[in-house]
Specification:
Elements: H1 2-26, H2 39-64, H3 70-94, H4 99-118, H5 121-129
Length: 130
């Protein structure tokens, strides 16, 4: 389970950095269904891309630790889950988004239980080895 956590942390980190940088470079054209927007929305989207890249760097930092800190995994997972719950709130307020956004929401709601379950796997494995 510790190896699974480490692999998932690396994959999450790399994916978030790549997605975030793509949003910084491409702006609102990186968002399926976004259509034409004004400079304010484009600025916000690029800023959030930078924040998402930073979130990915936090995952990469955690993945490099020996053992991976349980607290870091839980905090980063909580942020990811909050993103998914925010999409649910958006559906309640504004309606259904593009289908790709719905797929992302499913990932953001489905993956956190796995991370929460594995959160202490690396620390438990280190204690067992000691």
């Amino acid at each position: 389970m510790a190896r699974t956590l480490r692999v998932l942390a690396w994959v999450m980190g790399i994916a978030c950095v790549a997605i975030g940088l793509f949003h910084v470079v491409a702006g609102m054209s990186a968002i399926p269904g976004a259509g034409d927007t004004d400079a304010t929305v484009d600025s916000f989207g690029r800023f959030m891309g930078a924040i998402f890249a930073g979130y990915g760097l936090a995952w990469l930092w955690a993945a490099r630790q020996m053992p991976i800190p349980t607290v870091a995994v839980r905090l980063l997972t909580g942020v990811f889950l909050l993103g998914g719950l925010s999409r649910v709130l958006s559906i309640a307020v504004a309606g259904w988004p593009d289908g790709f956004q719905v797929l992302l929401m499913a990932i953001e709601l489905g993956l956190p239980p796995v991370y929460f379950w594995l959160a202490d796997a690396d620390e438990r494995s280190a204690r067992a080895r000691a």
